[in-house]
User: Fold Pyrroline-5-carboxylate reductase from Alicyclobacillus cellulosilyticus.
Amino acid sequence: MAEAGLMARGIFIIGAGSMAEAFIRGVTARGAMAPERVAVVNRRRPERIAELSARYGVREAASWAEMSAAGLVVVAVKPGDVGDALAQAAPFLTGQPVLSFAAGVPISYMQEKIGRRSPVVRTMPNIPVAVQAGVTAVAFDEQIRPQDREDVLFLLRQLGEVVELPETRMDAVTALCGSGPGFLCYILEAMEDAAADMGFTRDEARRLLVQTLAGTAEVLRAWGISPAELRARVTSPNGTTHAGVTAMEQAGLKHVVAAALTAAARRAEELGRTYRG
Ligand SMILES: NC(=O)C1=CN([C@@H]2O[C@H](COP(=O)(O)OP(=O)(O)OC[C@H]3O[C@@H](n4cnc5c(N)ncnc54)[C@H](O)[C@@H]3O)[C@@H](O)[C@H]2O)C=CC1
Ligand SMILES: O=C(O)[C@@H]1CCC=N1
Assistant:
């Protein structure tokens, strides 16, 4: 008899924080995974598992040994805790994929911690995965079996878009998509401050700006055009957008944004070096 696949064997999650919750919500929301097939362990705060259980119907793992039967092990702990969590998991791994959400932690480091007992999947999600509108960049190690790869991609797609990349692109994608919501929010903060100076209340400004951002993203997607093209469409000759963009150009905004992305990617690389032994 063929061995049951990843989906039938269920998921074992280490860590019950916000990423674990986003993942659980995504994979159970539309029935991709039955919640009773999801088992969770947490180091502290046992009430977190009770919360996840009440909200989504997942259950607390009876013991770490339960991991052996799972089709997928998810490591949803802070980067600094990944080494310990994987060392603790290693004896129970039986070749099922181990998926990590930890920013900056390389596949080679994780492989070392688990004594190469399972293929490792390194991901970089962003915060909108919490509402199933995220982007998750994913790098597989070459040991992954084709069917496991498909199943992992299917599960991650429940959280939004998925982009497969070589691991060498992870630092750059961390800057672009992982930190990206932070950068867009910084620009929105600046627009909110300017709106306050123009006499809007914070609440009014936020409602107007959030819908402007969401609507712009929606139209870019619906029409399939580039940001430069959409900008050209809203820019009347000598009009208001033209005046504003000219001020942005004069202040060197494109250079500032490029410097921000470079700084973030460099920092991701530096943080990653901590785990390279
Ligand atoms: N929150 C976010 O926006 C994003 C998070 N990530 C990554 O997701 C990972 C998890 O982040 P959060 O969910 O925000 O962290 P969190 O701190 O909310 O949750 C981590 C949980 O894991 C538990 N834990 C730690 N070591 C453990 C162990 N050995 N065994 C069992 N449980 C253990 C902790 O007690 C805690 O409850 C991080 O590696 C982070 O880099 C990546 C992208 C975005
Ligand atoms: O700021 C950070 O380091 C993490 C990685 C991507 C989003 N937050």
